[in-house]
Fold these 2 entries.
Entry 1:
Amino acid sequence: MIKYSLLTFLLLFIGYEIIVRSTDIYWTIGQNQWQSNIMRANTLIYDGGRYDNIMVGSSISSKLSAKISRDSLPESFYNLSFDGQSSFDGLRILENLNYKPKRLFIEMNIISREEDKSFTGALFSPVLFPAKKYLKSLRENYQPVEVIARMKNRRKMHPDSLAKEPVAKFVRDESTFQHFLKVRAQDNKQLLTAEKVRTQIGRLKEIVSRFQQKGVQVIFFEVPVDPLVCDLPLPVQIRSALEEKFEPMGCKFIRIPDCGGYYTSDVTHLERGSVYRYLRYFRNELDRQHI
Amino acid sequence: MLFNSFEFALLVIASLAVYYLPIARKIQVHLLIIASLVFYGYSNPKLLALFLSSVVINVTTSYLVVYARADRQKLYAIIGVVVNLLILIFFKYGSLVGGLLFDVNHGAGAFLANIPLPIGISFFTFEGISLVVDAYKGRDIPQYRSLVARSITKHALNTTFFVAFFPHLIAGPILKAHDFIPQISEKLLSRIDWEYCYRKLVTGYFLKMVIADQISQHTFWIRYPFFEAHSSLVLITLLFGFSMQIFADFAGYSLIAQGIAGLFGYKLMENFNFPYISTSFSEFWRRWHISLSSFLKEYLYIPLGGNRKGEFRTYFNLFITMVLGGLWHGAAWSYAVWGTFHGLALVAERLFIQATFKDRKAGIVRKLIGGCIVFLLVTLAWLLFKLTDIQHVYKYLVAIVNNQSKDTSFKIIVYILIYSIPVVVYHGIYLIKSHYSKAHRFSWAEPLALAIMLFMIVTNTGIGGDFIYFQF
């Protein structure tokens, strides 16, 4: 029974590997948030693309490249920000790959969150990391359930290549927004302890120094959030702590614009029209500061 | 150390490589104890101190229960049980009690609120209680007398191994001394039941890594305030998904534990017996987390008097057993409410069946209706496991009613349904096998099914997170 079963497994596995190598069944959007994060990292790790500009951050930054046209982003740009995580994960990936972009953009909004070691552990597992280089079917981008579930869309066109929808009038669900506002406002009123700030900034300082030694230009940026939480004690504390520590190190800052006029559906994540608006500001700042 | 981690695979392979060597035959138990301590102390070696202290207490009290003067044996049994319970209460419920009695920001309250919860404590303290009680029962049950060896060294080895054996150490199944200790002997490679181990391991890893870990990335949204953004249909699907996930996660863990133990020549008890086909709550508790429910029955319900002290006491005993069983899961009121819910359900079911059906056998329609009601209520009650703040549970239920007009994310619904199919099929196959006499004709399908599961484990796993029951 075991021999028959193992033999069948081998046939299935080899057959699937042949299929994924000979057809274009490849997705960049996962079945869920965690998988989308992994796939975003896999694309950088295994596809061999070299980018001059890399952005690291949380879901706040991750939304900057989702559902928008690529030409709104700076050239040779890769967004290595992850939903539910922080800048530390993207930085860890770059360090593990010994990746040296020209410019490294670090999000300032979420700094208190720790590196997700299970995430980076899954990406660089001692067995799967080398195996995924050679066996495509082991990569999350080719999971069979994903392939089957999205096969219907594929008949029309590769879903990742579909034209982005035009920006429509933004309609927000007010009851949902109020629930989020209550929680976020509460969270953003609580200052981090001095010890926590010291630890996180110290950790970030070490990483930034290592990148600077390699000749990478480090730029901090802050994405606007809802005006009601924009200047509460926590973001102000993080903002001033980062500026105080990293400006003397020669890092540039793309400071948060006036939050008025930016819209979010859940207090923290910009809606699509506001993303375009922020990216215009972002690119103008790059030009203005000669970055 | 997680069962699905690289380090764990290394530990098992290294242990197996040495375990069956002829030269190691006399020290097999020693080897497994060392492997188990490495497993337990891997991420936090400090925890070993508490674990070994608990072992010393159980070795000493169980030995004294058997070999001390006859008039003191009962006293030692009581001491053994009480000390185990105090350890459990202190580490597990200290923060809950501290929050009730003191200000958690200062003094004793702050101290109690910050007591760390050692992983697996609920499991190894219950196993300690089982040893002490079984040793005491040896006065009346002849086969229990051999549980405590005359040599204190051998008894210490057996006890340490019984509690520490790594497949069951941190999330069960909860072993009973009288089931496990008699199995301790020299094991031979030729005696391994490879098919049993292969079946358990492949099914277990499939349930955990493909089903539970994939669904968990959707049920993640059962968190305040995130669930407020979803429609009623999504909220109901998420709850259904969590019901599938918790089964796949815990049953998967138990199957892996059985498979690993089997590789070392030991059989652990079945912990799940297709619980979602249950047509009554009493049947559900004979099929879900069997090692806990049988422990509670043997060491709590029956000592309380079981059903031998009249109708009222039977209901009371049932109820109190379930409330305490609920609290066993964690130091939060939601677990007590969950236990109370199941206790009330068992009492109400018993009252209803006795009043309505008496001794009439259940027909197919009654079973079907019963099965649906039990599944719906059990699934609803899992919300108390996912949201340990009662206010959030209430908000979730209100959102199910109020969010009918919100946009529905069909992606979440589709993926939860896809990953739930194997759990439904798993139960369905069991039903077919038990009702269709010619089911053996399809035995050729088993290796194929195992091959597909193995293929999915390799190509389609989700996030490798902790097992849900680790927190208990």
Note: The first helix of chain A runs from residue 2 to 22.
Entry 2:
Amino acid sequence: MKTYLLASLTLLLVCCYVGIVGITFAADSDAGEMEMLVFPEKYKPMAVNNGGMISGMVKFEGDKPEMKMLEVTKDVEVCGVTEKYDESVVVGEDNALKNTIVYLIDITEGKDFDKDAKLEIDQKGCKFTPHVQIVPVGTRLTMLNTDRVNHNVHIFSNINTPVNKQQTKNRRKMPLAGVKKAEGPVSVKCDIHGWMSAWIAYVPHPYFAVTNEKGEFTLEDVPAGEYKLGYWHEACGTNSASPVTVTVEAGGTVTQEFTLKLK
Amino acid sequence: MKIRTIALLFILFGTLVLVSLMYAQNAPEASERGKEVYENSCAHCHGVEGRGDGSAAENLLPRPRDFTRGLYKIRSTETGQLPTDQDLFDIITEGMPGSSMPGWETALSANDRWEVVAYIKTFHAGFKENENPPKQITLEGKIPYSEQSVETGKELYVELGCVECHGNVGRGDGTSAPTLTDSWGFQTWPANLTQGWTFRGGFDTEDIFKRFIGGIAGSPMPAFEGDSFLNFGLTTEESKRLIELENKDEMTEAEEEESGQFYEKMDAAVDIALTIKEGGEVSADDIQTYNDAMKIVYEKSWHLTNYVKSLMPEKRPEAAIGNNVLRSQYVQGALPALDAAAWETFEAGYFPLVGQVVIEPRQFNPTIDGVHVKSFYNDTEVAFLFVWDDRTHTTGDETDETTGKPLEDALAVQFPVKVPQGPTAPKPYFLWGGRLPVYLWHWKASTPEQVTELTAKGINNAETQEAQGELQVQSTYADGQYKLWVKRALKTEDKKDLQLEPGVFVPIAFSAWDGSNGDVDTKRTMTSWYAFTLEPVPSSRRFVYPPIIAILSVGLLFGLRAFVQRRNTEDV
């Protein structure tokens, strides 16, 4: 009888222990859910001569998912002119996956940013274009509003100062202050039009590309060397834990293909 | 002599500075005590690690704050800045109206509250990393409340797009209201600006100003500073001129150039504002330009604040008890209809609603604040006007997942079937009766011209009365507010109905449902018993009896006087 009691007590304790450990693990995996880009600690711009090129394609594994149509609940006469779709997974012909960021994880020296590049996100038709935007640290991003409806630009930064700023219907162009630290991608929303969604990556170096409709990306003027090549996609996650290693030769081209599936 | 005075002043000033430094409100270093107090008093909701995930969190909306992200709603600081220690201390002390956060003024000593402030700050690295103290919003240049200021503010309310969420007259019923979520993805509602007492951070003019300039971090409420305003960087005259130019069908070349110059000026001002924000170098001239532009921004913000202030009463109305008890007013002839001006002539009785938390399913996060009631009666009928705010007009298009019933807005007015005789006589149980039944008027938004009469012996035990159609009903929904008008005969044939007569205090209670907040069945807001009375008609006899008594008394006195005089003469 006594043995029986002792055994069940032990069993109970073991169960409790397993339960606690399980809960702890669950909590940990929750915390790691936000998948981010990885940045080098320091980056030094320099002139790049006869650099190489990394290009390729990102494909989606599995059946092409149907894009969910979003309900336009507001300012229908402007926002409802075109149909709105959830752009979290955009798959084109030949399973091409749009809006994937492909980048060099561990580059510490290379070309400088293109200073003349116009950095904009348009809100035409109550939709952010592009859906994923790369913004160099310290550079101003301009929000466009040509529809004459009110928007509020809400950027959910954690490391940099979060932004929630009204862009009234009269404000065609609203530049936003440059940020101090590399971060992201961070989510961008408009609370007035709840369906609007985009992502911004604040980056410390220019070796970032976003795939187009054909799933293509190109990183140019890469100094010869060995690099870790990473990707990020809002619904498919990252490969930060096991990035691909590529070797770039001076003037050469490396081709890399990725096949991503939903998390 | 002069030097001595200066020296004295200097010492006095120095002492003052020292004293104020000693009293400067800064939290102590985080201590064991702070941790202990936090874990005993705060962790149940805010979680041991400050993630806003304590055991009680799930049932609360708004959710308890997650301290790890450093997003604090109620701050005296500019947008993107952390709160000051004093801000945190004040919130802990005063609590947050309209949420589950209580004030801790009596439960925790001031010292313990400061310890908690210090401990809370350890959850977010930003507090430690920031070298500079957070930048506070300046309250200088406050523009006093005036009709003109309110008028200017009203224009800004539209111009800045406040209507999108807060609605035309501020009842939080804007067209974006139903889709708002906070930074954690939980549903959140814009403030009803006509109910200042529900504001989390207080509704003094300064409080409202700070929320407007600094935004409410973690919520959809943006910050309005600098170039959120129309024509930032232009003087009032220039701004007027530009609007005039832009309204022209065609501009001349000179006008094109003029407008172009205005745009250049605005771009330059925005550039300076951004450079300051980015921590870049700016010249003294630039700072002057920036300050001039900001002066106009702050003036406009005070006007807007005054407008918002004009939308709300100075304080929460008193509940309809004691002197404020609901009195139905007697009128001769027909009772006023829903849209009659007569309803505007007296104050409504106010019945504050609370979530029903006695019986499952409960409502822990009510969205309806209270019902305002007015009433008239004549010799045969009584009419009631019920008015309540609801941000959304929900008529049952969607159904509740658990019950399968339609989610719709509704109101129920509850009376006892029989008025208890005397103040100590028992009333039916307030949750729709029990042993003693209640008589109910049940109105639903999907059938806005109809009120169903029910008899209930419990919250889940209501029966529709066989005899219906004794009530006349009108209702409207506009700008986030329902108005429901109900008329009935004072006396009916139905034994299950309440019979009314003047001068009797009749118990009355309310239940309200906000369909968009998931209210259905027992999940609702409600009141306990209140009372109302048909104010007795002042009798016309009051014009007859007092004069008669007066004349009689005077006559009596004269008679007495004559009698005494006569007796005295006889004696002599």
Note: Chain A touches chain B at residues 73-75, 138, 140, 150, 152, 154, 156, 158, 161-171, 174-178, 180, 191-194 (CB under 8 Å).
